[in-house]
């Protein structure tokens, strides 16, 4: 009864439009870099951070009005608490997780597992709570408990939140993160040098009455200042041994700084092309209207030149890096992307309905234009598609791919034909199986000698009967494919079964097949 109530609540929340619209709005506001209002939210939060730190610094030597302290300890902290709570909320969908668990259990003919659903929800939420940015957010709201005066120092952690709102700072962190091993090696080397030099200088100087290095902390302070070539001059070795140690540490400090500089320079050099690409993608995502040209062939060059005369914004997608470089040298906006795989690129967020006027397919191959047309038609149904046709026999294939306007290079220039055709059932089946949005897939199941005749027995199980299709079995020993195999053939070690079924059903079949004991 309790499980039924949980599932009903999850379905209600998942289909309740005001709730879902609110969650999408706050997700875009907090996480979506391309949302038009996010930059205003980021500027507001950055302003709160600087104001909070200003109040903290001013209160060190000056008695501020009580209202300022209340504003800093309560109002600003409350904003950060609300932000943390909203990020925790939108990080994952509890209702979706419960529904997926319920549908999985229902499909596999077993009771709804409330425990498994809660375990998945807890795991997803803990991923957020234990992330570095979430930990910084949590430390930033600690001044809310200002009665513990020591916790006011956590206001400084609000400065670290700038990494969340400033994209350039996040990019800097990602660049340095690519050199984690080198940075870790540098830190270990530096720590060893500080430890060794601190002990050496302490042994040389501590017993000399004229030396100011009298404690181990003084020695550590001197070592850090010397290694990083700051040299304040407040602690100076007076013994010959101490000066020898100082000379060694100064040389080592130059090596440390050189090592650190080389790490940073190499990291930026390696990421320079990637940074340029990201900035270019940001420019593309910011375009309000544009024409999308797929392929940079000589014909495409001529078409683009004519469109440029009309001052129309154009984006070129070409998978050949050399052609992309050529287009960029001519001042064109071009990306080294395969137009037949647009759905796999995470950074490029093209809103076809609002950004793209039309798509022009100008690859030098009919096959490439057809695949590009199929991919774009999967992303949008309303944007007009124009394509060049190189071989007349492929005209029908172009129509089936959803291409609206087809121009053949051997026909009269400017002659256009619009063909509206219904896709055949076979094409729909293949298209459905290759789509990522369907739950039915083609998969491989490796069979071994331990399986025996359990494979064919499982096919007659009520759970799999008429819901689990076996196309055939491929024999690795004979390199032959046996279509619609006969059970009398048996299973040979190394055989691979090609099956079509629901994803969850295939996982359950594979688990039962390799489970010891009776089926």
| Beta-strand residue percentage | 5-15%
Helix content: 55-70%
Figure out the total of helices: 21
Molecular shape: extended
Low-confidence stretches: 146-151, 412-427
Count of discrete domains: 4
* Spatial gap, N to C terminus: 31 Å
Using only C-alpha atoms, the radius of gyration works out to 33 Å
Largest sheet: 7 strands, mixed
> How many β-strand runs?
11
Q: Strand sequence of the main sheet, in spatial order? A: 3-2-1-4-5-6-7
The assigned structural class equals: alpha/beta
Mean pLDDT figure: 79
Description:
The relative contact order is 0.05. This protein has four domains: 2-165, no CATH class; 180-272, Helix Hairpins, CATH 1.10.287; 288-429, NAD(P)-binding Rossmann-like Domain (Rossmann fold), CATH 3.40.50; 439-513, Alpha-Beta Plaits, CATH 3.30.70. With 519 residues, it is an alpha/beta fold. It is 56% helix and 10% strand. Mean pLDDT is 79; it is low at 146-151 and 412-427. The two termini are 31 Å apart. A seven-stranded mixed beta sheet has the order 3-2-1-4-5-6-7, sandwiched between helices. It has a four-stranded antiparallel beta sheet with strand order 8-11-9-10.
Quick summary of this structure?
By secondary structure, this protein is α/β, with parallel strands linked by helices.
């Amino acid at each position: 009864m309790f499980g039924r109530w949980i599932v009903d609540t999850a379905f209600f929340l998942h289909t309740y439009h005001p709730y879902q619209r609110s969650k999408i709005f706050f997700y875009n506001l907090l996480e979506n870099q391309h949302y038009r209002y996010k930059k205003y939210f980021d500027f507001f939060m950055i302003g709160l951070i600087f104001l909070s730190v200003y109040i903290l610094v001013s209160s060190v030597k000056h008695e501020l009005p009580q209202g300022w302290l209340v504003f800093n300890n309560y109002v600003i902290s409350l904003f950060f608490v609300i932000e943390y709570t909203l990020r925790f909320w939108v990080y994952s969908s509890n209702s979706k997780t419960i529904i997926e668990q319920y549908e999985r259990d229902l499909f596999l003919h077993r009771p709804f597992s409330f425990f498994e659903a809660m375990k998945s929800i807890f795991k997803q939420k803990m991923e957020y709570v234990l992330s570095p940015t979430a930990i910084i957010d949590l430390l930033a709201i600690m001044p809310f408990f200002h009665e513990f005066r020591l916790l006011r120092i956590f206001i400084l952690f609000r400065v670290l939140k700038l990494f969340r709102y400033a994209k350039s700072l996040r990019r800097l962190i990602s660049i340095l993160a690519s050199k984690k091993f080198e940075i870790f090696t540098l830190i270990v080397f530096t720590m060893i040098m500080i430890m060794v030099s601190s002990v050496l200088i302490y042994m040389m100087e501590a017993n000399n009455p004229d030396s100011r290095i009298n404690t181990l902390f003084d020695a550590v302070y001197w070592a850090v200042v010397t290694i990083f070539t700051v040299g304040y001059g407040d602690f100076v070795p007076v013994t010959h041994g101490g000066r020898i140690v100082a000379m060694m540490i100064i040389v080592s400090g130059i090596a440390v700084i050189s090592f650190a500089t080389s790490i940073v320079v190499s990291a930026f050099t390696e990421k320079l092309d990637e940074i340029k690409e990201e900035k270019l993608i940001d420019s593309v995502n910011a375009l309000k209207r544009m024409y999308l040209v797929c392929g940079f062939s000589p014909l495409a060059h001529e078409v683009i030149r004519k469109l440029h005369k009309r001052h129309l914004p154009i984006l070129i997608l070409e998978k050949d890096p050399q052609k992309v470089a050529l287009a960029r040298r001519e001042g064109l906006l071009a990306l080294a992307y395969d137009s037949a795989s647009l759905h796999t690129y995470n950074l490029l967020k093209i809103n076809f309905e609002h950004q793209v006027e039309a798509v022009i397919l100008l690859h030098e191959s009919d096959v490439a234009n057809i695949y590009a047309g199929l991919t774009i038609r999967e992303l949008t149904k309303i944007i007009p598609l124009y394509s060049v046709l190189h071989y007349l026999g492929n005209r029908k294939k172009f129509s089936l791919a959803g291409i609206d306007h087809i121009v053949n290079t051997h026909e009269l220039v400017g002659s256009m034909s619009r063909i509206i055709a219904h896709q055949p059932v076979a094409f729909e089946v293949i298209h459905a199986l290759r789509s990522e949005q369907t739950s039915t897939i083609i998969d491989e199941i490796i069979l071994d000698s331990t399986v025996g005749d359990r494979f064919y027995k499982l096919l007659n199980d009520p759970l799999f009967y008429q819901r689990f299709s076996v196309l055939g079995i491929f024999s690795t020993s004979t390199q032959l494919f046996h279509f619609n195999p006969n059970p009398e053939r048996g299973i040979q070690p190394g055989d691979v079964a090609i099956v079509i079924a629901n994803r969850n059903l295939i996982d359950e079949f594979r688990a039962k097949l390799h489970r010891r004991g009776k089926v």
